[in-house]
Amino acid sequence: MSYLIYPHFFLLLSINLPCLDLFIPYLKIKNMHRNKFEEHLKIAVLLTSIFFIVEIFGGLISGSLSLLGDAGHTFRDVIVLVISLSALNISKKLPSKRKTFGFHRVEIFAAFLV
Length: 114
What we know:
Order of helices and strands: HHHH
Oligomer: single chain
Structural class: mainly alpha
Helix content: over 70%
Shape: elongated
Largest sheet: none
Low-confidence stretches: 1-23
Strand content: under 5%
């Protein structure tokens, strides 16, 4: 399923024409899918953070360097998930007069960073 919204839809949003009633349900459906992904990302951040903390404590208590190394990799996974979650939240913003294409490019930039 494609989540691409064409730029002319956003131009219609900034002009406030009466034909916007046709596109508002589409935006609501798109945001429902994004809310589902946001919930999944929040759960993934929580679970990965718990594993990170357990690995840190387990590595410090047992003196295992391999557990501490794996905790470092898990910390990177937490950072990547937080970047993805924040990009998803920023991309939900509606377009403005200055940013007529909206904020969907933030997701692409976040994917480039990750």
